[in-house]
Design a protein that fits this description.
The protein contains 21 helices and 15 strands. The protein has helices at residues 3-24, 29-33, 36-46, 70-80, 127-140, 159-170, 191-194, 200-206, 219-230, 268-276, 293-302, 325-332, 352-357, 372-384, 430-444, 459-467, 477-480, 485-510, 514-525, 529-532, 535-540; strands at 61-64, 147-152, 176-182, 185-186, 189-190, 210-215, 237-242, 280-283, 308-313, 339-344, 362-366, 388-393, 412-416, 450-454, 472-475. It binds D-xylitol-5-phosphate and zinc ion.
Amino acid sequence: MRYLDLKRKIRDARMWAIQGITEAGSGHPGASFSATEIMGTLYFGRMRHDPSNPNWGDRDYFINSKAHSAPGFYSALAVAGYFQPEELRTLRQLGSRLQGHPVRYSEHQKQHSVPGIEYSGGSEGIGLSVGVGIALAKKLDGKKNRVYVLIGDGESNEGQIWEASMAAGKFKLDNLVTILDRNRIQQDGFTEDIMPLDPIKDKWSAFNWEVFEVDGHRVEQILDALNRAAQVHDKPVMIIANTIKGNGIRHMANNPQWHGKAPPKRQTEVLLEELESECLIAPSIIAGERENYEDKIRKVEREGVDMIHLDVMDGRFVQNTTFFADTIKKLRRLTTLPFDTHLMIQNPLSSIQEYIDARCDIITVHAEACTENEFREIQGRLIDKGISPGIAINPGTDVPKWLYDCLHNLDVVIVMSVNPGSAGQKFMPQVLEKMIVLNKQLRQHGFRGYIEADGGIDATTLQQTYDAGARIFVAGAAVYGGGDIHGAVIHLRHKAEVALERRLLNHATEINIRADWMKARKHILIPYANELNIEEELHAIR
Ligand code: DX5
Ligand code: ZN
């Protein structure tokens, strides 16, 4: 699965879910958004399933035991292709197929459900038993289907979860993977106050499950755990996904209040803008002290960056030489963080296979370095291997005309804001205008990928390129140049947040909900009040 395509689909799923919830005026945004990456990774990146043939005998099964996350579940199904996402707008309405809790699809009651739903839920604690039943049946039949069950931590209070857990261990159901949405909030309180679950890992291990733990919002970690789960024999697998309730909307995050409450409909546009504005930070390891790449990767991984940007220079397309696929292959073993490989090399087609084999997640080649046919071949081969293809353009270059025919499967366009060749150069401000225009033109022609800003990105230029449409930010010298990597990443992220809050506040003002927005967002806005120049205004809100 292409990393950026997966990210985009997950973003889309959240956007459809929020439209459904605000339209309905009810629903569970918090419980949906903690699990969006989990469901998205399963449906868009992992499970064997076919939306055009939902009853396919060889399909994998997904059982959503925490069924109140219905808006998130429906939107995953819709984005996966089971039905038109626009139908989300009928969520919870009389006569809609998308009710507050999902109903198992049956040909006889088409009007009550949508294809792809295997389980009717609502009462908590039951789904795992159903999953155990299916997994056991498939095993007895000698079938290869795998069963994935999503459970909540709140519902883990139910005794039936543990009965099912015992049974799965007893029957050695290695075709069963359960994912625990560990957001630590249930209803209007915290799980550890209501009924403590920890040490949760030990509990599942003691019930004879193989247990993995991941950050449930990092798709690369979820995918990695699912891959490891496929290698486990004679045991069911539990993936503890540490998540944030309401993730994606900053004022909903980790707040029990938003477990099952809809934001007001008048805020929809601004909420959509927030979801659309997610930004990814990708440190470039060629910057700062020479080489020592492993150490540099470890350090930024600890800071929670999103990707690693790998600048490959061949001494011909650009003057410098950095490293090649063999180095990337070695670095690959260090981390699950996505590798964003930027090939500044002549004739990229001739060595593309090496970079595919090095398991890069994104591979970008320069428009100046290949012809239309060469690019199409590269793009095709990357898509085939589940790698995100990208194209990069130098400050003095425009995107080639032929690119407009390749947009459908293009995941990223790198707009260089320095002439490529080395880290630590000065940002070229004339690129901003180009980025704005290009972003608009690409979108008009159906581009759904990411614009990536590369070259001279620091706290200031990050904000500028962000406003110009970039959503991925490469940072070399700004991260590795000063010696304080921790401080540098905090600073960059803070500036990205300021840029986001400013955009959202402006948007809210345009549609006349400024006061309303500031009230909902007050606790989030406080750290940025000074930079946004809203200190007094914020103070006056009660
Ligand atoms: C430029 C490279 C970069 C760049 C990033 O040739 O593509 O990715 O070095 O480093 P800074 O952020 O220092 O410009
Ligand atoms: Zn680069």
